[in-house]
Amino acid sequence: MSEIAANLRAVQERIERAAAKTGRGPCNIRLVAVSKTVPVARIQEAIAAGVTDLGENRVQEAREKAESLGRQVRWHLIGHLQRNKVKYIFPLFDVIHSVDSVALAQEIGQEAEKRGWPGIDLLLQVHMGGEETKSGFEPEGLSSAVEEVARLPRLNVKGLMAIPPYLPDPEEVRPYFRQLRQLAGEIRRREIPGISMEELSMGMSHDFEVAIEEGATLVRVGTAIFGVRQ
Ligand SMILES: *Cc1c(COP(=O)(O)O)cnc(C)c1O
Questions:
Q1: What is the mean pLDDT of the chain?
Q2: If we measure between CA atoms, which residue out of 148, 229, 227 comes closest to residue 192?
Q3: Alpha carbon of 73 to those of 1, 31, 33, 67, 139: distances in Å?
């Protein structure tokens, strides 16, 4: 078995164990293999080993890779998206995890409309503590942002995404994951048309098990599959 295949197997087993611990089935947890900076040949190995979803943080890099990898996988955009790059997310990405402003959502909706695209799945990124990233809606402002985004055309708001601070002990990250789940629950209870809140994109290589215990449906795992990035 190749190194990547063995890593993938180990990650899948960890997902199953974390899911079992809280009585969840592993089938409603999707593993997004984060392939940023990873060369196509190694990504191909991962696909051969069973990867079905790729996460990229730059539109241009993903488009270049897609020229050889095509649409045998689902493509997830997980990095900050500039408004002037929105036209390049079509027709590649299946899910945009990193919608961090109403203006960006508006741009995506307009572009979808212009292209006659029926709808695009997206997640709203919530800014949670820490300095790792400044992107995202502040939890306090999320509620009104959701109402604005709900009025925009062609957008399927599927849930929330967060990049909590990196803390050496994953247990310390748990409160952030829990907060994201609670925020999604509050929005879901309002039953806003066009807003479903069934997805929680949270958890990376060092903390995805805790994220799963707290309800993650999409985990974004790079290093644990592909090794340390160059
Ligand atoms: C790079 C990245 C990941 C993967 O991080 P690992 O620690 O390598 O698993 C997950 N999410 C986002 C947004 C990233 O940029």
A1: 96
A2: 148
A3: 21, 12, 10, 12, 32
Question: Among the atoms of ligand 1, which is closest to the Cα of residue 36?
Answer: 1
CA–CA dist 187, 132 (Å, integer): 25
| Distance in Å from the first CA to the final CA of the chain | 23
- 33 beta partners: 54, 221
State phi, psi for 97 to the nearest 5 degrees.
-85, -20
Nearest CA to ligand 1 atom 11: 220
Q: In a mutational test of the pocket of ligand 1, which residue from 57, 80, 95, 96 has the highest number of ligand atoms less than 8 Å from its CB?
A: 57
Residue 79 has what DSSP assignment? S
Question: Would the pLDDT of 186 be above 80?
Answer: yes
Q: What is the pLDDT of residues 92-101, one digit of tens each?
A: 999 999 999 9
